[in-house]
Task: inverse folding
């Protein structure tokens, strides 16, 4: 995970500009054409979703199709809340996602710190166990895990959606790596100054590792928000279902309500779009962590 | 650890402002530190008196940092006792030893401004805000960093960082300062300045300083005493002059002085005049003056190690050692001439300004005027004394 | 140095005069014990979660595979040893679902990678407004699998779906009900949904290619095309490898798009391993068979992860 990725982009851009001042006009036009075509293809499903959310079902079904929101109508969004229960689903998703994200960051930071700075017996073995969890996704333990949830009396409740995800092997690994970048001298200086592990963690290590924490926070948020299979098998009523499962019900609406379906998907994707725009840097870091650098 | 443990001082005056010598002696007794098979510090015994400025000197990797960290409590010795103010502190946590450390890297917290960095140890000890501000103001004024308090470490120069690191150590008024090559990251001129400042600081605070460096100039100019460490083993402890004039062994001799002493191996031979002895060196033979010859005779040696300081070598047409000049370093106030003796060995000659300087490539003969040589045992390399 | 040196009282904090000097409160053993206790306290929350929801169920899954689930509820399940493993693994249903999963991987991973890399190269130039294109190319990371699937499901609706209309499939059963087209359609949705991530990954890797290398190649007179193949691509290879492995692992876990688009149909033509597992476990309540399938899936993912780890380790420790 590298420092200022977007900064690099700009610097590299400058270099390129110096290299080839202004390419031949034809080449420039060709490039833009390619870019625009690619952008249209990639963005079209999203675009048409938004457009359709603003059209009436009749307009959507009309042929030739309507590709622009002529006379936009916002009623579909209201219907998504009333017909599709989107309000409850979004609230549930938000609650579950925030809880998971906060807890995952906290438990990963604590464990990552312990592996980076605290000497305790079998720490290496335990760390390997933590890494091993990366190879055991929820998909392969569905059956007993649902039994556990039922046995705990958590079936169809928020704990069922949250508790299994309160820890992250990836987060622990990421934080351990990042925390190890804190110079030993800083740790020693803090020890001599009278700071124990807890205060060293909170006053020095965490502030110094904001980039990694930001990246993992966004990563964890995204993962929690997008969960599908697990929430599907441990919930059965709308009161606790998340928006991804809510979309499943929404999809079943009749073809006379496709505008509501589209509006629902817009609402379900909106929070992540906001994150994409606001926390672009962290998002990129979070998604590329472990790939480009580690 | 009670307040009365403070050497020679009255108990703490609540208002502060009292000139209070805070210093404690430090003692190491057979202290050993092993990492696996490697011995970083090998049964080190060393006594540092309260208020002393002791320099721990040695080449890189000889165990200096380890020794310092042992005293600080950042490492636990494999064997041996560590005392501060006479009390064994082996079992005492680093934070309870009442020592402060200045790190080679300065170890400033990058996310905190200078003020918060200096305050850091005070906050750990829950010092009241007013008192804290007063102490920070005092110490930052005395180190001339008062106008940097709001900056981050990244926004100040290396020399300023160095002062902040010092300030953070001083603000606690510890009994002992441990300094690990604190000047090594500064440029040459700043280093010279800071040497003087540190010495002055020590005089004012009177606090014991255990100062680690690999730079023998620093050691000679700053230390009350110098302890020389090599491969984890203590070689010699003494005041600078003593270490310089009477090195305990060939290693110390070859490490101290600028340039350091020339160390040459030679065979003993009779001069043929009375029972006089001469040493046959790579480039020729030189007579051994009588008191030294007597030592050699008494030990029945056939070969030995000769040490001669560069300032005690002369370019002398009548000299008996021959070689050729490979390099001349003109420093302005003096000249260093490197000669390759015929056996291939290099020998450094220090010439005061005014003395004629040979040119590189020139063939010269050398002599040791006055025979100011030091002799070392060829096997143990220990100093041979009368 | 200025004229005054701080002469304040020593700051020794909570030192109480009555406290015994010397061995300290805890001593060496006490100190390392405290350290160990603290270490375990720090890892305890995560360890507890892993114990209950990762390690225990993994072992339990393997064990469940030894028991045959009775045909009717409330009958005891029967220990059958390895025979259930054998029968499930050799069953046609399993082998077909495994084959479909492999097909799904083959459809999604290479194409997704090439498209993502292509977009990254396209967006990695100095042109006015390039940032807008970058944002658009990353935009599908904001759509979850469910969002993407519902969008495409509706656009592929045989009666009102725009894509059905454009593809000449209006009326009739629809693309998602076409045995030949269903899996490719699911693959297209998957590729599209992953495109933002692949683009981000490849862009980051592209930006990690040192300018000096490209400039050196330029000075050596190599063409842009040549530079891409001979300098850029080799330097991207670790990321490409990572993307392949991660994409394959992801494809083996792809559930939402199947569930929302085809539910395994038509006629099991999109019934990939994970969906087959889900049906056995939660629709037919055959925990025994589901457990065996889980173990198989685990072994496959384990191998893939292992390949990735090995590679990752080598790159981290010897590469840089
Ligand atoms: N934590 C450690 N683990 C293993 N070996 C170490 C450790 N710390 C120091 N050493 C070894 O101990 C020796 C002395 O190191 P050090 O005290 O840092 O030397 P100096 O400060 O004099 O350069 C070196 O050989 C070093 O490699
Ligand atoms: Mg050192």
Result:
């Amino acid at each position: 995970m590298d420092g200022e990725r977007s900064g690099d982009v700009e610097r590299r851009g400058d270099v390129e500009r110096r290299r080839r001042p202004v390419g031949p006009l034809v080449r420039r036009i060709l490039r833009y054409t390619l870019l625009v075509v690619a952008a249209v293809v990639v963005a079209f499903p999203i675009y048409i979703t938004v457009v359709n959310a603003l059209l009436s079902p009749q307009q959507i079904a009309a042929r030739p199709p309507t590709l622009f929101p002529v006379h936009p109508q916002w009623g579909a969004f209201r219907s998504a809340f009333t017909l599709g229960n989107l309000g409850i689903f979004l609230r549930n998703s938000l609650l579950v996602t925030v809880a998971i994200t906060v807890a995952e960051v906290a438990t990963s930071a604590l464990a990552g710190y312990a592996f980076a700075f605290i000497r305790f017996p079998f720490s290496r073995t335990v760390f390997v166990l933590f890494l091993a969890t990366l190879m055991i996704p929820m998909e392969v333990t569905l059956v007993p895990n649902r039994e556990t949830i039922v046995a705990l009396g958590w079936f169809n409740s928020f704990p069922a959606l949250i508790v299994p995800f309160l820890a992250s092997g990836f987060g622990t690994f990421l934080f351990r790596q990042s925390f190890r970048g804190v110079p030993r001298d800083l740790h020693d200086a803090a020890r001599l100054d009278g700071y124990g592990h807890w205060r060293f963690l909170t006053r020095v290590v965490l502030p110094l590792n904001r980039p990694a924490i930001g990246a993992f926070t966004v990563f964890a948020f995204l993962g929690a928000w997008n969960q599908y299979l697990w929430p599907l098998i441990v919930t059965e009523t709308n009161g606790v279902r998340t928006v991804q499962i809510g979309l499943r019900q929404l999809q079943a609406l009749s073809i006379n309500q496709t505008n509501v379906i589209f509006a629902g998907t817009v609402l379900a994707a909106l929070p992540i779009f906001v994150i994409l725009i606001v926390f672009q840097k962290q998002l990129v870091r979070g998604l590329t962590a472990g790939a480009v650098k580690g | 650890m009670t307040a009365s443990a403070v050497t020679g001082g009255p108990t703490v005056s609540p208002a502060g402002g009292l000139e209070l010598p805070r210093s404690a002696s430090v003692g190491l007794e057979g202290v050993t530190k092993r990492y696996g098979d490697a011995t970083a510090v090998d049964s080190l015994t060393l006594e540092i008196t309260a208020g002393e400025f002791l320099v721990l000197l040695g080449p890189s990797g000889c165990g200096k940092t380890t020794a310092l960290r042992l005293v600080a409590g950042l490492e636990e010795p494999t064997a041996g006792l560590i005392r501060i103010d006479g009390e064994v502190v082996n079992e005492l946590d680093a934070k309870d030893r009442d020592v402060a450390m200045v790190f080679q890297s300065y170890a400033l917290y990058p996310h905190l401004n200078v003020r918060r960095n200096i305050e850091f140890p005070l906050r750990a000890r829950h010092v009241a805000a007013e008192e804290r501000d007063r102490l920070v103001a005092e110490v930052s004024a005395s180190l001339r960093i008062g106008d940097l308090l709001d900056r981050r470490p990244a926004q100040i120069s290396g020399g300023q960082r160095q002062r902040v690191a010092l300030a953070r150590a001083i603000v606690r008024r510890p009994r002992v300062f441990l300094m690990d090559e604190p000047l090594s990251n500064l440029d040459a001129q700043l280093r010279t300045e800071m040497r003087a400042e540190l010495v002055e600081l020590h005089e004012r605070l009177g606090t014991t300083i255990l100062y680690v460096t690999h730079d023998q100039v620093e050691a000679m100019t700053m230390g009350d005493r110098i302890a020389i460490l090599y491969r984890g083993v203590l070689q010699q402890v003494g005041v600078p002059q003593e270490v310089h004039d009477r090195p305990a062994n060939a290693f110390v001799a070859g490490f101290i002085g600028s340039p350091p002493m020339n160390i040459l191996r030679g065979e003993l031979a009779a001069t043929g005049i009375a029972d006089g002895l001469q040493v046959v060196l790579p480039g020729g033979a030189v007579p051994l003056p009588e008191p030294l010859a007597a030592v050699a005779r008494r030990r029945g040696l056939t070969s030995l190690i000769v040490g001669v300081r560069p300032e005690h070598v002369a370019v002398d047409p009548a000299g008996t050692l021959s070689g050729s000049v490979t390099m001349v370093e003109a420093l302005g106030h003096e000249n260093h001439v490197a000669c390759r003796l015929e056996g291939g060995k290099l020998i450094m000659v220090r010439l005061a300004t005014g003395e004629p300087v040979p040119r590189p490539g020139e063939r010269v003969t050398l002599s040791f005027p006055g025979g100011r040589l030091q002799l070392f045992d060829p096997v143990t390399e220990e100093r041979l004394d009368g | 140095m200025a004229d005054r040196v701080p002469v304040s009282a020593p700051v020794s904090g909570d030192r109480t005069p009555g406290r015994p000097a010397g061995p300290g409160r805890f001593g060496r053993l006490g100190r390392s014990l405290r350290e160990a206790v603290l270490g375990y306290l720090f890892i305890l929350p995560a360890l507890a979660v892993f114990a209950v929801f990762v390690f225990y169920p993994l072992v339990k899954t393997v064990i469940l595979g030894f028991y045959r689930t009775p045909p009717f509820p409330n009958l005891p399940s029967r220990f059958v040893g390895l025979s259930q493993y054998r029968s499930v693994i050799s069953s046609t249903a399993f082998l077909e679902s495994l084959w479909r999963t492999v097909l799904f991987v083959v459809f999604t991973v290479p194409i997704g990678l090439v498209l993502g890399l292509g977009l990254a190269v396209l967006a990695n130039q100095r042109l006015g407004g390039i940032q807008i294109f970058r944002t658009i190319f990353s935009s599908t990371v904001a759509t979850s699998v469910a969002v993407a699937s519902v969008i495409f499901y509706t656009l592929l609706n045989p009666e009102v779906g725009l894509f059905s209309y454009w593809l000449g499939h209006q009326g009739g059963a629809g693309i998602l009900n076409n045995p030949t087209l269903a899996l490719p359609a699911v693959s297209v949705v998957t590729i599209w949904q992953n495109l933002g991530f692949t683009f981000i990954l490849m862009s980051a890797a592209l930006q990690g290619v040192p300018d000096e290398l490209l400039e050196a190649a330029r000075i050596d007179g190599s063409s842009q095309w040549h530079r891409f193949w001979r300098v850029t691509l080799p330097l991207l290879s670790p990321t490409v490898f990572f993307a392949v492995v991660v994409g394959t692992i992801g494809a083996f876990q792809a559930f939402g798009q199947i569930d929302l688009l085809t539910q395994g149909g038509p006629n099991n033509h999109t019934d990939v391993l994970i969906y087959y597992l889900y049906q056995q476990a939660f629709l037919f309540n055959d925990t025994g068979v589901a457990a065996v399938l889980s173990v198989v899936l685990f072994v496959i993912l384990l191998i893939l992860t292992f390949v990735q780890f090995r590679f990752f380790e080598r790159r981290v420790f010897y590469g840089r």
